[in-house]
Amino acid sequence: MKVRVSIFSSPAERDYDSPYAWPAGTFLQAGDSGIVLPSGSLRKVLTDDKAGAQVVGAALGVAEPPEGAYTTAFLEAFPKHPATFIRGEGKTIAEADASAWRQFQRFAACPKHKFWRKGYTNGAGFCRCCGLFKSKAFRPIGRCRYNCKGAVADHDAKGRGYCKRHNQKNPNRMFDRVDGRLVMRSKEERSGS
Ligand SMILES: [Zn+2]
Ligand SMILES: [Zn+2]
Fold this sequence. Notes:
The chain is α+β, with helices and mostly antiparallel strands. Helices cover 20% and strands 25% of the residues. The protein contains 4 helices and 11 strands. The termini are far apart.
């Protein structure tokens, strides 16, 4: 399958063709000089000309990468089903492709994805079994699922938000209002009965 290879890659890699059966419509891009910076160093690269020049030089293959950083070949796949993003790394694009393909195979072999938010509030989810990332696994937190202006007061088991007013329709709501007071519902009631 055709891969869009970065123009900074070595000539030998530029015509790389993936031997794997990526599903039709999958966008593939790759390069043999991706730079992985140590965490926290981006600020230095952006504010320090010398560090920045070193990174650009390393990407072009004419300078050593800065301390703690390394260059790698990478292949990024954007399949449509499931809509996700997979990044493989390796010494060559072929190695990176093999790594990305192994990840894709693991996702495809998962019997049933069980998504959780992993702390993200933008609706992204990760499968607990296979690690698949899905950008629209949930509704974003922070908005009532009835699209009113009310602030989100509670969530249901699927992570959808409810404002105070609409929370009566939330099968998993924490509290019921009884005689003007909030009463916590039992675990059984909260499980959706
Ligand atoms: Zn899964
Ligand atoms: Zn509402």
